[in-house]
Write a structure and sequence with these properties.
By secondary structure, the protein is an alpha/beta fold. It has two domains: about 270 residues, Acetylglutamate kinase-like (Carbamate kinase); about 100 residues, Archaeosine Trna-guanine Transglycosylase, Chain: A, domain 4 (Roll), CATH 2.30.130. The protein is built from 16 helices and 17 strands. An eight-stranded mixed β-sheet has the order 5-6-4-1-7-9-10-8, sandwiched between helices. A five-stranded mixed β-sheet has the order 13-11-14-15-17, with helices on both faces. The protein has a two-stranded antiparallel sheet with strand order 2-3. Helix 3 packs across helix 5 and helix 8 packs parallel to helix 10. The protein is globular. About 0% of the residues have low confidence.
Amino acid sequence: MSGTSSAREQVRSARRIVVKIGSGVLTDGDGVRPRIFGEIARQVATLADAGRQVVLVSSGAIALGSRELGWSHPGRSIPEKQAAAAVGQIALTGVYKKRFARYGRHAAQVLVTRTGLQEHERFLNARRTLQALLALGAVPIVNENDTVATEEIRFGDNDNLSATVVNLIRADLLVIATDVDGLHESPPRSGEPKPPLFDEITRITREVEQAAGGSSSAFGRGGMTTKLEAARAAGRCGASTVLCNGRAKDVLLRVAQGEVVGTLFVNGSRLASRKHWLAFTTRTRGAIVLDAGAVRALVERGRSLLAVGVAEVHGKFGIGDPVACLDERGVEIARGLSAYGSDEVRRIAGLPTRRIVQVLGYSNGGEVIHRDDLVLVDADAESTR
């Protein structure tokens, strides 16, 4: 797919940029590559001097910590990985601090967890902190807090974290710097010529998904599939994504100048920030099965979910918890914040709104999920609302 000048021109005009630096860029078979930190700092400082605001989402803490501990592996258990991260975070921040100081820039460490950002108040607090740092001219270095995270609360990879940061700062562009040149039209095979790259992708289709391969880095957690997920999520923020080789000469500057580098994922229809948070940052606590009429009301007419349209309730959730809305085949069509707990929804399922007070003795409103607290899974359907 060939790139278009208009799409690259949008990249060139981006003022707020999130740069995700993967472990594959920062490390090699012999450990950490110290010189790459200086190259990253130089390019980011140049962009900042030109009036751009840049947030770094940087891997490398576990790799640096493992090196400090004399390990040749990233840790064989979650506690070992957390220990490596605890040692490595100090080293990672120290390296960035020294490199950015050469260019008169302060580096700031920002550690987050999924559960922290699932609470909307904390999400907004993180946004205000990042905005304040950018206004001060500092360079925020964001990472998942691996020292306290577990399998259940981890973002799982910094690709998805970077897309959340795009929403946090309302960025125009996400740059995913990895150890490959971009997304190839089919997975490269060892000993064979590399397939051509996708220059530009306007929609992540099944063909694109099939072209995604896995990660070969021992220290990396995300593969190409997670990069597609990040590009899709960033696109729903209205941000374009460029997947490129972070080791290439001046790659960040060349991307920001609109040069045809790597693979460009063109931005999509912008979701409101709250709905993007609901769609991509929250984790559902249960599910509500809708009848066919309720599905049509949500998808085709942009309505709220009423009790009369509820067929079944799965799991246990409380008031204000995020829940998945499923059709009768079990396919998720939307997710939203429930106005009632799971036990209450079960009691009023299938009933008209006027009977809620009669059955429960109180009412939190006529909607089980109000349209303002609901987002459709299908991007095209949601963008029309």
